[in-house]
Amino acid sequence: DTAVSQTPKYLVTQMGNDKSIKCEQNLGHDTMYWYKQDSKKFLKIMFSYNNKELIINETVPNRFSPKSPDKAHLNLHINSLELGDSAVYFCASSQGGATGGYTFGSGTRLTVV
Amino acid sequence: DAKTTQPPSMDCAEGRAANLPCNHSTISGNEYVYWYRQIHSQGPQYIIHGLKNNETNEMASLIITEDRKSSTLILPHATLRDTAVYYCIVRPSVAGGTSYGKLTFGQGTILTVHP
Fold this sequence. Notes:
The complex is a heterodimer of chains A (113) and B (115). Chain A is 0% helix and 56% strand. With 113 residues, chain A is mostly beta strands.
C-alpha cells in the first residue's frame, strides 16, 4: 500500500537514449510534482501538475516532458539523455490548497553513461 | 533561493533531545514553516509544519518565535534512526500563482545521532 510509487528504482542508460520514469499516488491528492536531486544533494523542483494541468515549470530543458494522464499519475519522459541528467528524481504529491505535508516517492536513480 | 538558514551539521547523543534551529528572517505573514528530513537514499519525509503557534505531533515539536523570524525543531528523544538531513522550508499558504506548491530546499542540517 505504497503511497507514492515510482518505477523504475534504478535506471542506467546510454547518452542519446530516451527514457521514461513513472509515478503513481494512491492518496487521492490532486497535485503531483517532480523534483531532481543532483550529485551535490540539492533538491530542486522541476514540474508541478494540479488536476492534470501544468502549474509549475521551472527552467528545465525541453528534453524533459511531463505527462499526467490522470491526477493519480505523473510520468516524466526524457529525450536525448545527457551525462548531466544523471541524478535522483523524486515524485511527490499533495492536496492543493491544503497546508499538509507532501508525500515523496522513494526516488529513481538515473545514471547516464 | 531558499529563504532559510540552517547550521550545516549537528550532533546529538542517543536518547537526548535534538534541537535544530532555523532562521527565516524574511518570512511573510502568509508563509508556513515546514520541516522535512531525508534519510540516506530515501525520499524526503514530512515531519511537521506551523504558522504562528507551536506545534507537536508524534514525531516532533516545532517552536516558532513570536516574531516568526526563527524556529526550532525538537526531536524529544533522538534515536540512531533519526540520523538524516533536516530541511527547514517556508512556503506560502495561499493557493494560486506559480510559487504555490513549490518547496524550495536549502542545504539543510545533517543531524548525526551517536550512541
